[in-house]
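Bug #77: duplicate submission created two jobs. Keeping one. Sequence:
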Amino acid sequence: MSTAALRKYKADLHIHSCLSPCGDWDMSPRKIIDKCLQVGLDLIAICDHNTVENAGVVMREGEKRGVRVLPGMEVCSKEEVHILALFEDLDPALQMQSYVYQNLPGENKPEVFGCQVVANENDEVLDENPRLLIGATRLGLHEIVDKTHELGGLSLSCHVDRPGYGIINQLGFIPPDLPLDGVEVSRHVKLAEARTTVEGIDDYCCITNSDAHFLDDIGVVSTVFYMAEPTLAEIRKSLLQQEGRRILI
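Kept job's structure:
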């Protein structure tokens, strides 16, 4: 595709819903898309902790209203490192969820960790997930990344600048044999400054996301992709700087 067909897409690829135990109830499907439209986001990913059960409904709501929504999840490894798994379609995301659920011990205590609400298109409660979604899985980092790739997804290390659940703080380094597609820096570090302020990420493509758990946090930071369409394949090309695709800062 010629570079003339490329355009800017404003993206926030790490947004939680009311299904995450630390997410606010206001993070319902309709309200998430309302906020995305208010702040001018073209592309988002719903990435709840260790689950994708609310991704489908937000995808459908986004499709109706002109916001492209990718399904994903924020997986917690046995090393207590958070890894984003992003997918193009819901089916591979659900396969990843099944893999994670098989390796996720414990039950949620709503009075301690918060409610885990599965919602519908009308922002009504369908169910509450009983699993300990906030917990660590039995899966190692390599297992999570490899499974994500096996299912056609992208794997990025979350908020590498943060002390909590960031790979550099937890391990002291990024394993050189871990085939990440990129790293995410948090809203606390400007994307343009990340390489000079966060040690150990020189060899990785960097993006920034809000990691929003509350409506007001959606889009407070974003990544602008220069690509042909808002798809996972185009994001992959942007991370690799292929065929004119790239990340704009």
